[in-house]
């Protein structure tokens, strides 16, 4: 299916490029040629509409994997939160200096506009599916294609609602310039996505023959997330939050207890016979990610294919060993150097885990945890510089972090050097024999994994007052991770620190942390940023509270015929 996706994408892009080129050429338009493409004649077959949906899958892949290493996507993936910051060599581009962060910041515009690009593509596919010129082989074929497009439209509005709050609901193709879009409320934005997903829940299969396509469990997972977010906002506004939280539990139950998905508790997959490794490590090895690989924990994964990368699709890669891995050759140059497997690959530290993420969540009773084992979160690095006193021995973190008498040097070094997750590096790099360096992984990657569904249900239960139930759900993950310490209701705190900490342990490099923090409401997000950001700029400059990103000023200014209200905290900044 991966090559099929790529071939389909090439086909649809040729049509879309024709549309763009024709619109740009006024003389050509004046002649009104019979071959001019419009939204009503751009598609002539059902297969082409499916190709338009495949184009959305491709954009989601690029948005998630970030093969172009775009800075704003690192923010979308969590840079600037409690979990991630930037290394000393990139301090000028930090997303934690609020002297530089305002509604004119390009990050906000890029994120906002990209989700609307996805909405526009989904609207095009939905509209075209009803064209009289399209012949579908069956009602089920049409329903499946439309359901995928509606899923992506709902997914986009979920993300916009979590990050920006209420936004304009665009459900039709815009054929003429429009400058009077009206914001919906945050609850209305969530409700639109909920209605969209409930319409298509049964139009998607429980499983598919090949990986990558949306399945019913992905819809139910998003419904759990949407009802949770809606309930939180209703609680702020004085609405019926408990009913929404109960619905979140109901949809999470469908995924968790439905019989299709389950946690992987035993060794499995392509490397299960190797003595090293454990069940959690197996989740992130090549050929192990998809449900079709025997991984019952995978609900939706983006597809990466090395042969396609070599042949025609240079974006079919996960550049995680480059963008996320440390730079020991700078931060611990007297003891560790190089760019091979022994130092986590060819890292350039575009986004680093904060001390909270790397160490804080594993202190004291939390330390004994499979997710903190050296095979999963590698902390043992053997000195490879012959002149080092640690040559051939483990280099102590105290030496790396505090080896200098200069505190500024130590801060810089510890920002460059940190444990390496098995999610961003491997000991077996594909493509080295073909001349590839150790920058990229060529495995598929999760967008939705059952673990997150369990954590959503735990949070919904906590918000319903069921702390015992929340603890039991969290312990499903902790038991799989063979943790010594299992939580109790007494650990379930009202600031949701336990939930957020467990998400950090389980979903490092997986969740979009901004979405999680901003939907929490109140000052939970900003308080954690002030507390855990690596550099002191955050605490010094984050002098106001917010729980939404700002509406980009460019959007407000362009919408000249309807005033769009700025989000609280960002006015006049």
Description of the molecule:
With 573 residues, this protein is mainly α. It folds into 2 domains: 2-84 and 102-311, Serine Threonine Protein Phosphatase 5, Tetratricopeptide repeat, CATH 1.25.40; 320-434, no CATH class. 46% of the residues lie in helices and 3% in strands. It is built from 23 helices and 6 strands. The strands form 3 sheets. It has a two-stranded antiparallel ribbon. A two-stranded antiparallel sheet has the order 2-6. Helix 5 (106-128) packs antiparallel against helix 6 (139-164) and helix 6 packs antiparallel against helix 7 (186-200). The longest helix has 26 residues, at 139-164. The chain is globular, with a radius of gyration of 24 Å. It starts with a helix and ends in a 15-residue tail after the last helix. Mean pLDDT is 93; it is low at 5-33.
How many strands in all?
6
Discrete helix count:
23
- CATH topology descriptor of the largest domain: Serine Threonine Protein Phosphatase 5, Tetratricopeptide repeat
Query: Judging by the overall fold, what is the CATH architecture of the largest domain?
Result: Alpha Horseshoe
Keywords:
23 helices; 2 domains; two-stranded antiparallel sheet; mainly alpha; 573 residues; 6 strands; 3% strand; Serine Threonine Protein Phosphatase 5, Tetratricopeptide repeat; two-stranded antiparallel ribbon
